[in-house]
Amino acid sequence: MRSAFLPFSRPSISEGDIAAVGEVLRSGWITTGPKTAAFEDAFRGYVGCSRAIALCSATAGMHLVLKALGIGPGDEVITPSMTWVSTINLIVLAGATPVFADIGRDTLTVLPDAVENALSSKTRMIVPVHFAGAAADMTPLRQIALKKGVPLVEDAAHALGTHSSGRHVGQEGTAVFSFHPIKNITTGEGGMFCTDDDHLADHVNRLKFHGLGVDAFDRETQGRAPQAEVWEPGYKYNMTDMTAVLGLGQLARVDGFNRKREALAMKYSERLSGIDEILPLAVPPDTTRHAWHLFIVRLDTDKTGISRDDFMAALKQRNIGTGLHFRAVHLQKYYRESMGMHRGMLPNTEWNSDRICSLPLFPDMRYEDVDDVVEAIKDVLSH
What we know:
The protein is an alpha/beta fold. The chain is 39% helix and 13% strand. The strands form 4 sheets. It has a 4-stranded mixed beta sheet with strand order 1-9-8-5, with helices on both faces. It is globular and about 70 Å long.
């Protein structure tokens, strides 16, 4: 057994990252400023999108787009239940209703047919989720959204470096990225709103900073005009230069990070291939570059006779950390009790929610760490 605990994830922070943050702190300008503007420019260049707006979180991005699109009471938003709770919470807080569509049993990405079946006269937005570094099946989803005439906003929190049909996720349409510490790059906390809709971008940009008619940082004046006026009530969701400069350094290394993630994932796949109780995910066919944000497996609980939660606890006892991405939102306490959600609504989602487990995966891992994880899994299963 390992003598030291192997966490499920750990950010890869270099001495250069630390020095860059120190320089910002010494500069006297630590809130939204030139580093945030530079990060937006660099991100736009990397993804290939038309507009990129840096925010304090991806959750902020989803909140702002719901507000900018005027989604509220009486409206419905279609999304998978196999996702982090923030998007669903925001839909409910806006007064709208989340409508859940089932996922592919082996891809964990939303099924276009399920989305189409969930459409109604009240549908106002569709939110597909790119999962674990793989891309959702965007071609039919775009066709569905276009035919219905509703916006499609991609949850790209897992998808920095992911390519779908040869193009980076977020290059076209509207997408929201996350820079939480477990993501492929981090700014500590943070997110990026990307879109090719200038009107939507201008609206989100205004809402992110109190609803002012100018940005928090004017690139020409290197500041904010003091006579700026409120166009509409807004929020305080801007990114700071302290976090943006960390993102700049991380973004410059993201391809290297992702190559290491892929190499570790391939080693996992090879080592786990002979363990019948561990069921891997399939890569969706439109995913032409996988970012390997997570390495997710499913435990065959029928064969093992133990639950996923007990499996994770047993690995922890052997100094192996794991993650759970995710417990189905529709089966969580609030949604069961307040919205009448129940088992049987989404068979593929529920089957996976009971069995998924994310194994340690981060760029600073050693290949020997993968061996330790696999040996610990074998040891748990043998008992």
